[in-house]
Amino acid sequence: MKMTDGYVDKQVVPKKKSQLLKDIKKGWQLYVIFSLPLLYILVFKYFPMYGAIIAFKDFNPSLGIWGSPWAGLEHITTFMQSFEFWRVMKNTILLGIYQVLATFPLPIVLALSLTYIYNKRFKRAAQMITYAPHFISVVVMVGIIFIILDPRGPANSLLNALGFDSINFMGEASLFKSIFVWTDVWQNVGFGCIIYLAALAGISPELHEAAIIDGASKLKRIWHIDIPGILPTAIIILILNMGGFLDTGFEKVLLMQNPLNLKASEVIDTYVYKVGLTGMVPQYSYSAAIGLFKAVVGLILIVGSNQLAKKVTKQGLW
Amino acid sequence: MHSHIKETRSDRIFTICNYFLLSLFVLSVLYPLIFVVSSSFSSVQAVSTGQVWLLPVDFSLTSYKEVFKHEAIWTGYGNSLFYMVVGTIINVAFTILAAYPLTRKDFRGRNIFMFLFVFTMMFNGGLIPMYLLVRDLGLLNTRWALILPNALAVFNVIVTMSFFKSTIPDELLESAQIDGCDDFKFLFKIVIPLSAPIMAVMTLFYAVGHWNQYFNALIFLRDTNLFPLQLVLRDILIQNEVDPSMMGDVSRMEDRIGLQQLLKYSTIVVASLPVLIIYPFVQKHFVKGVMIGSLKG
Lengths: 318, 297
Description:
The complex is a heterodimer of chains A (318) and B (297). Chain A is mainly alpha-helical and 318 residues long. Chain A has helices spanning 13-26, 28-51, 64-67, 74-81, 83-103, 105-115, 120-131, 138-148, 154-161, 176-192, 194-201, 205-213, 218-243, 250-256, 262-265, 268-278, 284-313. Chain A has 2 domains: 1-44, no CATH class; 76-313, MetI-like (MetI-like fold, Orthogonal Bundle), CATH 1.10.3720. In chain A, helix 5 runs parallel beside helix 10. Chain B is globular, with a radius of gyration of 25 Å.
């Protein structure tokens, strides 16, 4: 996906221009084919970007987006100086980093473990079972979490049987992030290992044969052949996850929230939702300003991590 | 990779540990699911006194009987099916209509269009402007609010593009053009018939997405008759709101609480059943989808 072709056109304008018209005329059907998706993108993706300027206005529905009076940076500075700002930022960042760090290495471990299973039926069963939770909806997933971690649920029965006191898991703010992250690992580690299985399958078997003849143990082969073989894939995935870490499972956070854990569970997205859509008086502009703040930080992170990916592995997402 | 040379002792230990740890992990993935299913088939007393830990205790279908009486679940089921079927058809159609022109080298402006599409993956206007747009379009509290705003996922367009690039060679287009085939005909008579594998993968990805979606319904819908299943589940599983009619003639407080808890188990099973039944048959398509997606366009 090269984006640089455009500026070549400028140098030979007249000839190119008629060529351009000719090309468009010749390929008009392609534009017809493309028109619906393009219309969708413009209406449902770019119009909201325009609508985001209400972050710099005092939005009044009767005056419309453009007609509402300007407010400048007032909303963003109000947010940054508010009591909520640090709490919400801290939760968003900590949850995101915790999530990325915990969900990164385990799919690799699972993929390595699966490739050294030679019993085909066991391997297939293990794959099928570990991929399955990925397809559980987030509502059902949180429902299962509540059931398992219920004060009288199986997790506490186990604790009691081992001689520990019961824990009110969902009521402990300090446990929120761990519960969030490790249940996510439970749900997605299997599906996440698929890409590494593919990378491992791409490693030349001759390397392994040569290593076996030289008497390398399996652990040695993992360390010297498999890990270097999947390293480029792993680095790309890690960096891209870092780039998107502000978006960490907001729908799940919202479902898992309760008044007792709010201190640890309020993230930017849930805050935007509450301020903007659930209050008695919807604060559209203020909420949009917080959302825009997050979108800009997110964009910087993604572009930055892509640059990093390019530097480290000579290939980025674009 | 399987060696015919006799395994050394350290390798044998590795293999044993590997089988052991993987089995342990598989069991830990499986256990919560078994626990939910077993509990749903047990009696209220057995569940509320914590007797169930692996297999159903005191086998009973009480909670299923109550679930089947709950109308909201069935309305939700119907609505979710509608959103899934209509939404997925639109998704797959739009994805192909977007992906095909973008793979054509003679499609003038494709770099600009590509940038327009990819940029939306990195930046968006946010929740509030989206809500205002849906409201101003008059879609609020209509079925279209769950379908139109998600008519296309750019990531899937990219996956589909890499499929087209690898399966439809330029020569095919050239020879079709020599035979007088125009772009419409080429897309509908040649590209689409060749795209069955990618359409299957896309259908699955989009369909699961629609089936599992709840947040858009939460913000865009008020009318409970339009609620998808996931929103109904949210009331039962997360908010603990149960329709009194589900409780039948149970009057003792303790029994009510017990039954309410038990209903959660059977609701989870009933709601996840379609996915669980279809899953083993389509698993390999999902894997294929991930593979195609990992090849870069």
